[in-house]
Amino acid sequence: MSILRQLYQGNICPQEYTAPDNDSYHEAMSELIEICDEFEATLTEHQKVLFEAFELASAMVTDLEQEDYFCKGFVLGAQIMREIEEGV
User: Fold this and answer.
1) Does 14 share its domain with 34?
2) Same domain, 37 and 50
3) Are residues 71 and 31 part of one domain?
4) Mean pLDDT in the chain?
5) Distance from C-alpha of 69 to C-alpha of 14, rounded to nearest angstrom
6) Rounded alpha-carbon distances, angstroms, from residue 4 to 18, 52, 63
7) Which band of pLDDT confidence, cut at 50, 70 and 90, is reported for residue 52?
8) Based on the domain organization, do 62 and 87 belong to the same domain?
9) Do residues 68 and 28 both lie within one domain?
10) Domain of 81?
């Protein structure tokens, strides 16, 4: 089945593949979680609410950035294919 048909039928969902699956990433994520937990333990209740709002806003920005990176990568791939087909 063609990649376009798979994408249309929902068999491919690019946002499912956003986190790397390698040791370096897992180690960095574990360290981040540990530091975040330690940091949150020092916050007052009001600061925890603010920090949670910060985390949600940061996640939204990251999602928008990843969507943009995906789109730009797709366009770049299409441009590369066009050049290959043109023999440039």
Assistant:
1) yes
2) no
3) no
4) 91
5) 12
6) 20, 39, 23
7) very high
8) yes
9) no
10) 44-88
What single DSSP character describes residue 11? S
Both tokens assigned to 71:
């789109």
Query: Cα–Cα distance between 9 and 29 in angstroms, integer?
Result: 33
**Domains: count for the chain:** 2
Same domain, 50 and 70: yes
What does the pLDDT read at residue 83? 92
In this predicted structure, what is the pLDDT of residue 19?
80
81, amino acid identity: M
d(CA 56, CA 48): 12
Residues 21 and 58 in one domain: no
Among the ranges 7-21, 38-52, 62-76, which has the highest mean pLDDT value?
38-52
Helix segments in 9-44, DSSP class H: 23-40
Question: For the segment 2-31, what is each residue's pLDDT rounded down to a tens digit?
Answer: 888 887 888 888 777 778 889 999 999 999
Overall size of the chain counted in residues:
88
Q: Is this structure's pTM higher than 0.85?
A: no
